[in-house]
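Q: I have 165 residues here and want to know how they pack in 3D. Can you give me a structure?
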Amino acid sequence: MKALNEKEAVVLHAKFAAYMVVLIVLTLFFIFTFWKTSEAEISEIKMKTGDCENIYRMQNELCDDIDELLNRYRSFDVVEDVNSEFLMRSIVDRKMEISKKISQIPAKDVKVHAFLISKMDDLLRVRDSISAMKKEEARTKNDLFICNGEYKKLSKDRRNSQFLK
């Protein structure tokens, strides 16, 4: 026995199957695009992370370079017999190298380093002034000790001469 609406049932079953096929294809398409999108995002994140790690490494190198530059300059005070022309030339060369490295990195990532290098001359001038003042203070102290020693010696000699009279 055939149902009276057999044609309609077959058409509805076919529509249902078509909808299911379309939904399965759409689901597979969305899953595929999700995987591709997340794959692209992951590669972008890895690339950005690599860039950030590279910038961080270069920032650390710049910090070490600036520290070395200041240590070179500090050697003026530590070593008495130093070739000042050679040392100043090496300081200037090192400063130029650091400036080149700074120019290779985006400005927003090396603001502090660029500021330090731009103010390095002022810093070194102030350091020179302090060093000169310390030397002047030491010289004045020595002169004062010598004068004080001579005064004590003269006072002692005068007292001795008064006792002898």
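Q: Anything worth noting?
A: The helical segments are 6-78, 84-104, 111-118, 120-164. The chain has a mean pLDDT of 84.
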